[in-house]
TrEMBL record, chains A, B, C, D:
Residues in Enoyl reductase (ER) domain copies: 10-348
Protein name from the UniProt record: Zinc-binding alcohol dehydrogenase family protein
Record-linked Gene3D superfamilies: Medium-chain alcohol dehydrogenases, catalytic domain (3.90.180.10), NAD(P)-binding Rossmann-like Domain (3.40.50.720)
Segments passing through the bilayer: none
Stored InterPro entries: ADH-like_C, ADH-like_N, ER, GroES-like_sf, NAD(P)-bd_dom_sf, Zn-ADH-like_protein
Cited Pfam families: ADH_N, ADH_zinc_N
A GO MF label: oxidoreductase activity
């Protein structure tokens, strides 16, 4: 089959013929119809992000496609089903603290690298082999809709965080990083989950206005100044009442003081979710007053990705019209132009833009 | 490899050489050292229980052994590890409502039968192939201890129920069916989980006394009379305070009125767990006053088996000395005497007896 | 102050002057602006429902008004605040299983009657004294909006049930009793909580069509036939997928077989909520197959009313525009016409009608 | 009645006659039989801790006594009942984020101070008036046992933390601050809740040995060196497996780097509880790597005190013999010697010592 292969960090993807995956008894093989190119894929491929990848590798974080072959551990899937493939591979021999490998992207620790040996290649290819539990049926869609359904890959990430924080309909959320790609998805997901109000801080006023235009008056924009104390106060004021849940998904470049300004807007007994890339390459850690955490009874959830049962309900929210996928402007490339797709994604990292590869 | 094979219901197990299992990519192969023969295995093999089994089949519900081969979805298991194999096979393509097959025992519905096609054979054999998530490490044990560790197979069942009911240390539990095999295990597990008191009703006074002798004063025996209203009142009186959780694990032969007497001892806002075989072959259903359930805010949990993460913590409770395995008198047979083992198990169905096959 | 007083069951309410409530240190006194007359109030006042009420009594289940006086156990309430008063009085000396008294309506057991002694009178009066925790701030409203906000009294009941069942956005719900007063509120609340689909069974096709007209395509009406097996199958077919949660709020007159048809539509691992009045005056209990509950891992929640923290979030859902109060056609009476109000409420028991008393 | 009164910070308690409390409708009056003097009471009375107290005040954090008078919001309490009084007063008009006042000790924010106005005086007196929900029945005890039951005041604090972290039987816990007064109580409580193993780090080897001597082999002592990286590694090694839950209850004097060494021993997906006094008087905050919290999916719970339902179950654990109170050596003073009691408590701050005032 045809695939885009990274042979060494910093070189272009080689578009070439590679052996098609062979089905094992714990997996599903999917014909990829569309896969989203994450905006920072260029940083992964250049080696700048220092992600743990065993080369050569086919990159690509999940996608949308049709089931080609099914193992004996599936009872409801059928060949031809339209499915979403998630990239989060978890080891099956530790139900409590599984190792994690993000197929086609990165892995956590030695255990994650062991998983990567077998679930090695990502979705920039005609086919992908994924663990059975990573596949979720979409129901009937048309091939042209496949691009838009890839947006679930964006939305499932914040959904995982809000599930960890047990977000309730009627609550008030603050999304730190709201004008980013995942952050704007967090705004949409929080609203779809019934948040009464989403405070959206950012520096880019045009983008803040755009969030309000698209999602309506439940979004409360806040222009940040860069002064920690001022920003904290402004964000609090923007909310009509106490902020129940703060969600942070800032990129690696952001200082922890910016994150702290957002965190400390949360009300007593509130919950904080950390899903960003901050400190990924070191730098000063996140410093918080111990006494504040204790006296105010704050809970902080570090969350990486989302649980296996998340996709079913998010798909249902889309089907019900509660979560819209048509906010994304998509630009599709074929596999032969995978390098162009990566460059395009980097140049169009905004919140409502999605770059696709259609193998 | 050698195995005990059921060729048709009502015939003896044939002890013969069968092909050894071949490892797939989602499984583990275990050399079985000891497997417990459930007391009613004779009723399964005779066809009396009408369990869904695709013949010929190697029966046997999990067991204890050593890892022989490991798939690529495991990162912590090593060849040679002592492990517990659980029989509960769940389909991997539905995280919310998976199909279930009890390997070597039975299956639920069409989906369960599809799982049975691949995870077909049970543990009355030298080797077994199980899904990776069904294997839990025991740590170092000696071969002679393998029999006792099989008792976990008994204990995990009520543990699954108490987890569903979120049993808290310091609570009062009533075990309906306490003098049975699984019921007495429920008493032990509830105590190990920190139950302040376990009310143990039954008709067999000798056995009730035995429960108190073994587990101490936190067990409160109640002699049942067969009169529903009287029995309900007696059980309530036996508890030092309100009963927080009622756990029922009565066998198929018991009438639902007996179960109801136990259920209705639970306090307002209390939880009821149903794990028995009642109504398995039809008969009058469980009739409860709707208004009582509503006004008293009762929660009823139907529970089949236990979740994937249960074994790790139960093993830790044993290692910590909080749950003892030495209450069981074990009688072991080799594979050649599997039929004798089944007969022996049926004749020794009491609470502190365990019949083993050691392949 | 003026109040409507029930002196003996079966006699008209006497509109007369009674002593105004005196503030204690654990309460709030509220000037009632509007209170909803529950449709079956006539059955309570006639004695037909045999509700536990110590006569003479001022009936009336909570309402909307302004804070007149505040005890020392409140820190955020201010005199003049618009508030919702809930009727569910819970004893404060048992955090685990509190006694319950529905102020102005009924009480559960001896403990409930003890609470009724002090929190004796309901809301058909110019003032009411309620426990501090029963008051929730509404924010600014106008006096003319007070009628509509009373609809929260209807909506909080099913909300309590869905909270118990941990309803998730994206799930599918079946509301048994959807064409009734509380049942239609359950449909609205489930949708506001993000249910992807609400199956609404009933016999009244006009009303079913009305539910769809008001709440849109996410509501799936089902015409019931009265045949249990048929109805169960029809309800399942009406859902686009498995039914995650069945909510029942049938009135006392309905047979338990009707309830069972609804309950048994729930998917494996599904949740059932029972909040209706079924069996209130005896009759055959709810009979369910034990084996089905167990094998399918069903959870059944009996729920009476709603927890103390429910109102805050439901009010936020209204403020956010996610839950609309304008579906109700309200008809208001003054206190002098309280008996007319009770009669009118009985004659207009439909789902989108609300009868008010404005003292 | 007689009471010990603090008139200004830094002066001795005045033992004098003050008006007895008058019962309101939301409270209970208790005749105090014994009250524990927290070891740092001297720092509160001197003003060193800068606790928010409206002077003059009767200090004292809850205690054990007999019910003298009961409000109408209680249905199970009776005059003469032996009870535990908890100090945590919560405002009743905010179910989601109540204000908190620790009666006789301190208050949080303006709202807490408003509560303090009414629930003003603590337990160094013959009588105390507390909110009804702050009283829990102990069952029958003798007056001489009252001292020991006061130990619950110590134990409820860590119990509140373990409840927040949903500690499960069979888990491994690390108690940071294990050789302190609350820390050693945390060790006892974790064991009573079924922890398989409690890692107990500290600098005082004698005290570590004492913990093992009293609580047995499930306690794993670790001698700390003061080197953060070394200490973290030592603590991990002391556990037989991954550490599921880290509980910190370090005093204000301890540096956040010491806390961090403990926190970072927790396994992926583990939970951290912060209940100490660290940063109470400022100093460098707790700095943690954001990326570690996120990638390892860590949850951090700040917890102040314990929920209203905690005491019932902890009392049941004592009654069941699962939590022993006889580890404490008690030294009792009468009210006339309250100042001596405070000095004695400060001089005997060790883990198994308790200083009492018996009014």
């Amino acid at each position: 089959m045809k695939a885009a292969v990274l042979k060494s960090f910093g070189t272009p993807l080689a578009i070439e013929d590679v052996p098609a995956p062979v089905l094992g008894t714990g997996e599903v093989i999917v014909d990829i119809v569309s896969t989203r190119v994450i905006s920072y894929t260029n940083e992964v491929l250049s080696g700048e992000r220092q992600y743990a990848l065993d080369l050569p590798v086919v990159p690509g974080a999940g996608g949308v496609g049709r089931v080609r072959a099914i193992g004996p551990d599936a009872t409801k899937l059928a060949v031809g089903d339209w499915v979403l493939c998630g990239p989060t591979v978890r080891s099956r021999d530790d139900a409590i603290a599984p190792d994690i490998h993000l197929q086609g992207v990165s892995a956590r620790g030695e255990g994650g690298m062991r998983l990567q040996k077998y679930f090695h290649d990502g979705s920039f290819a005609e086919q992908i082999r994924v663990p059975t539990e990573n596949v979720t049926r979409l129901g009937q869609i048309s091939a042209t809709e496949a691009d838009q359904w890839c947006a679930l890959g964006n939305m499932l990430v914040p959904y995982g965080g809000f599930l960890a924080a047990k977000l309730q309909p009627g609550e008030t959320v603050l999304v730190s990083g709201a004008t980013g790609n995942f952050g704007s998805a967090a705004v949409a997901v929080a609203l779809a989950m019934g948040a009464a109000c989403v405070v959206a801080p950012g520096r880019n006023e045009t983008m803040l206005a755009e969030l309000v235009r698209r999602y309506g008056e439940r979004v409360r924009p806040v222009k940040l100044t860069g002064n920690e104390a001022d920003d904290c106060a402004r964000m609090k004021r923007a909310a009509p009442g106490p902020i129940d849940c703060v969600f942070d998904i800032m990129p690696p470049s952001v200082a922890t003081t910016v994150v702290r300004a957002a965190i400390m807007t949360v009300r007593p007994y509130g919950r904080v979710v950390l899903m960003g890339g901050v400190n990924m390459q070191g730098g000063a850690g996140l410093e918080l007053p111990y006494n504040w955490i204790m006296r105010e009874c704050i809970t902080i959830h570090g969350v990486w990705m989302y649980p296996p049962d998340a996709a079913v309900r998010l798909i249902a929210l889309v089907r019900a019209g509660l979560l819209r996928l048509d906010h994304y402007e998509t630009k599709a490339f074929d596999l032969d132009h995978a390098n162009e797709a990566v460059a395009y994604a980097a140049a169009n990292a905004g919140p409502f833009s999605m770059t696709m590869i259609r193998p």
